[in-house]
Write a structure and sequence with these properties.
The protein is α+β, with helices and mostly antiparallel strands. 24% of the residues lie in helices and 22% in strands. The strands form four sheets. Strands 12, 13, 14, 15, 16, 17, 18 and 19 form an eight-stranded antiparallel sheet that branches. It has a five-stranded antiparallel sheet with strand order 5-6-10-8-9. The longest helix is centred in the C-terminal third of the chain and has 15 residues.
């Protein structure tokens, strides 16, 4: 029956075995293999509804992947839904709100918002979709000031598992609204999101880089400054070493304020001496992606994340031995509004730090080596690690249960069973697994 899919929707359809299918079906992370039955590039929200009705009749599953950043390989046999063509973006500077189609990427939102002295709660990459980040909660540069990205959502436009279009708000459907604000995409297919923007008439940011020999003293200063940092200041500490190169100690930052205030807050780092690279200055929100300069093309990686209540053991575990086979790790300072009450599936992030371990899968034989190293780091830091992690940081063998408290997970499962009893919609990390 899947051979008739192309007559059921108006968007582009690629079936397994057709020219271009492998390119269309691949995940952003090239180390993740997925073999869907088909890929549909929907023309609009009505096309998504038509796809759902087709899948219901055919007994098939739909896995929404705007551009595949969160894919973990569980789309085998499913119809992968791409939403690139749902790219309508509207910014209203008077109400400080935006509406973004499910195919809109954060870079486009930031560029448009910056024209009006506003920012959106985007992450570090400009090529991640608004829908993908928000459905997983969203750890933004400005989360210390404004909380989860999902906390700013006003409404979702969705297609239900029955193939009906709906607009979901806290007033019209509180259970579904709650689930979509960080519980993943397991409950309906999101076609657009309306959310609040935030004032940023002045924005400061950039990257400072020192030789890897400064990694330990930089971490000490990072802990010292983050202990008293205002919510407007976001600091991310990293150590990076690419094959054949010397390690580098890195501090990435943004500050919702002027350069003079930022310089005073960052003064303790002057004790390290002049960095070998320093891009700090007043910036436009449109240029946020340039701070960390993350790859904007797919690549093969293996990652693991932990929430930490302390960095006490990080030097012994990660600095006092070679970094390889990892290419780097990053510590994001949380706290501030992240730690405040949040009516979202994850709830508050009470741990002040998020550790992210990254390796590149240069060849298949490196994958188990990376996995072993990442597990060893996680085991060594277990006494400081929280029981959960943000949904957008789930990877590999993680499950949705690793992101939510037992009460939240049970509520999410009840919503899933009520809204999609036949399991037509499959999230990257399903709540019923």
């Amino acid at each position: 029956m899947i051979d008739s899919l192309s007559s059921a929707v108006r968007g582009r359809v690629l079936l397994a075995g057709q020219d271009g299918f492998d390119q269309a079906a691949r995940a952003w992370n090239l180390a993740v293999a997925q073999q869907p039955a088909a890929v549909v590039e929907a023309a609009d929200a009505q096309d998504v509804a038509a796809l759902v009705r087709f899948a219901r009749e055919a007994g098939l599953v739909v896995a929404a992947q705007p551009n595949g950043h969160g894919a973990n390989g569980n789309a085998t046999g499913a119809i992968v839904l791409r939403t690139d063509r749902l790219d309508d973006l509207r910014v209203d500077p008077d109400t400080r709100t935006a509406r973004a189609g499910a195919g809109v990427k954060w870079g486009a939102v930031l560029t448009e918002a910056a024209k009006h002295g506003l920012v959106a709660l985007a992450g570090s990459s400009p090529v991640v979709s608004v829908a993908g980040l928000t459905l997983g909660g969203g750890v933004s540069w400005f989360g210390r000031k404004y909380g989860w990205s999902a906390d700013s959502v006003l409404a979702f436009e969705v297609v239900t598992a029955e193939g009906e279009l709906a607009r979901v708000t806290a007033g019209t459907d509180p259970d579904l609204f709650w689930a979509l604000r960080g519980g993943g995409g397991d409950y309906a297919l999101v076609t657009a999101i309306e959310f609040r923007l935030h004032p940023a008439p002045v924005l400061y940011g950039g990257r400072m880089v020192w030789p890897g020999t400064q990694a330990a003293p930089l971490l000490d200063l990072f802990r010292e400054v983050t202990a008293t940092a205002p919510d407007e200041l976001a600091l991310w500490y990293s150590v990076v070493q690419f094959p054949g190169q010397d390690p580098m100690a890195v501090l990435d930052l943004t500050y919702l304020g002027d350069a003079a205030e930022a310089a005073e807050l960052l003064r303790p780092f002057e004790a390290l001496g002049a960095p070998v690279h320093d891009s700090r200055g007043l910036i436009s929100a449109a240029d946020l992606g340039a701070i960390t300069a993350e790859p904007t093309d797919p690549s093969p990686g293996k990652a693991r994340a932990l929430l930490l209540d302390s960095l006490d053991d990080v030097p012994a575990v990660l600095l006092d031995q070679p970094l390889a086979p990892l290419v780097g790790f990053q510590v994001r300072h949380l706290g501030g509004a992240f730690a405040q009450p949040s009516d979202s599936p994850h709830g508050p992030l009470t741990e002040p730090y998020l550790l992210y371990l990254l390796g590149v899968v240069f060849s298949p034989d490196i994958a188990p080596v990376l996995d072993a190293r990442q597990r060893a780091v996680a085991d060594a830091l277990a006494t400081h690690a929280g029981p959960r992690k943000p949904y957008t940081y789930l990877s590999g063998t993680d499950r949705a249960a690793d992101a939510f408290s037992p009460d939240s997970l049970e509520r999410l499962r009840q919503i899933k069973q009520a809204r999609d009893p036949h399991g037509l919609i499959r999230a990257n990390f399903p709540v019923l697994d």
